[in-house]
# Entry
Amino acid sequence: MEQTLILLKPDALQRALAGEIITRFERVGLKIVAAKILNPSKDQYFHHYETIGKMISRRGQEAFDVTLEFMQEGPVLVMVLEGIEAVAVVRKMVGTTEPKAAQPGTIRGDYSHISFNYASKNGLSLPNLIHASGNPVEAKQEIAHWFNKSEIFAYDTVHDKFTQGKK
# Structure
């Protein structure tokens, strides 16, 4: 089974959308194997967004700084989800990074609508509710950054036969 990391960002928690978002993942058959609420330090976010995600080289220092400031506006819920091709499934469910472009039915498409252009013009971060690992390699690095192996659990559910093809 593949694992992926998600961060429910401060805007998701402040808007009381965590339960709705988690329910979507569980309904599709993804299993929560680790979860915790944190108020991460700038160093933790730097490692996540730049050391692993290369955000400065992709989006620039200003976007990075605004994102770090936004992420420190409140706690985040960090989770590891497990399932068949979990990274791709979660990315599809979350929708594109820019909420304005996210399709209806995706998490960002249903619960946010800000655009890159509006955020840039107004010196804002992009409140897009959730971070999801971009690929399986990144997922492994992010999971190792946020969780110790002892914090990740293996267990069976009554749904495994239907969601993971187990007999």
In short: The two ends are 15 Å apart (CA to CA). The domain at 2-154 is CATH 3.30.70.141 (Alpha-Beta Plaits). The beta strands are 2-8, 31-38, 76-83, 130-132. The CA atoms of residues 88 and 135 lie 8 Å apart.
